[in-house]
UniProtKB/TrEMBL annotation:
<keyword id="KW-1133">Transmembrane helix</keyword>
<dbReference type="GO" id="GO:0004497">
    <property type="term" value="F:monooxygenase activity"/>
</dbReference>
<dbReference type="InterPro" id="IPR036396">
    <property type="entry name" value="Cyt_P450_sf"/>
</dbReference>
<comment type="similarity">
    <text>Belongs to the cytochrome P450 family.</text>
</comment>
<keyword id="KW-0812">Transmembrane</keyword>
<dbReference type="Pfam" id="PF00067">
    <property type="entry name" value="p450"/>
</dbReference>
<keyword id="KW-0472">Membrane</keyword>
<feature type="transmembrane region" description="Helical">
    <location>
        <begin position="24"/>
        <end position="50"/>
    </location>
</feature>
<dbReference type="GO" id="GO:0016705">
    <property type="term" value="F:oxidoreductase activity, acting on paired donors, with incorporation or reduction of molecular oxygen"/>
</dbReference>
<dbReference type="GO" id="GO:0005506">
    <property type="term" value="F:iron ion binding"/>
</dbReference>
<dbReference type="InterPro" id="IPR002397">
    <property type="entry name" value="Cyt_P450_B"/>
</dbReference>
<dbReference type="InterPro" id="IPR001128">
    <property type="entry name" value="Cyt_P450"/>
</dbReference>
<protein>
    <submittedName>
        <fullName>Cytochrome P450</fullName>
    </submittedName>
</protein>
<dbReference type="GO" id="GO:0020037">
    <property type="term" value="F:heme binding"/>
</dbReference>
Amino acid sequence: MQSPTVSRIAHAAPDGVPLSDKEIFGFVCFLFIGGLDTVFATMNNIWLYLAQNPAKLEEIHARPDDIDKIVEELLRRWSVTFSGRVLDKDYEMRGVQMKKGDRVTFILPACNFDPDVFPNPKEVDFDRPRKTILAFTVGVHSCMGAHLARLEVKIGLQEWLKRIPKFAVKPGTEIEYRPGGVIGPEQLPLVW
Ligand code: HEM
């Protein structure tokens, strides 16, 4: 089956000018890469948490109808990446001077830990009132794959838990993280 998204990229003609082969290749690569490490890291973080918190796992089993808000809370608690930009003009924020051309990084996960918005933010609470989370950022460059990512986590959890209702981290495993743009355990050996 032809992918509608890739097909749209291949046939796109902004302002009537078709994209070049290089641009098409770039956009398609970006689309695939955007959905690889992010989903991998998100799932590793969530599965690690559930392996270490059997009471939360039980709660998920007990509340199948709440799966969407469960996924949203897990995505809030484990937002894995950030936004980077290059300033197009001089800017001042809270007394900090920034210059045109400076590179800035927005630590999105920190926004999901703002206690004024999410009280007791480190706690996983599936009954939090629904609020915008910044896992996928917001605005014109927000994640194109956010809906797919939410579905992947949701279906991943549903199908996994049907077959493997209880699991744990393999004894003796040391969980390792690698510095980089996407944060999650490098490997997660599980036993059941
Ligand atoms: C849990 C998984 C994911 C997370 C946490 C995530 C997070 C993000 C974030 C924070 C951005 C904004 C980056 C910025 O502002 O510089 C972004 C952009 C993007 N993401 Fe995702 N993403 C995920 C999954 C996916 C998937 C599954 C796809 C595609 C199949 C995807 C494709 C993209 C693309 C194409 C952009 C660029 C959008 C633009 O610049 O207009 N992402 N993502």
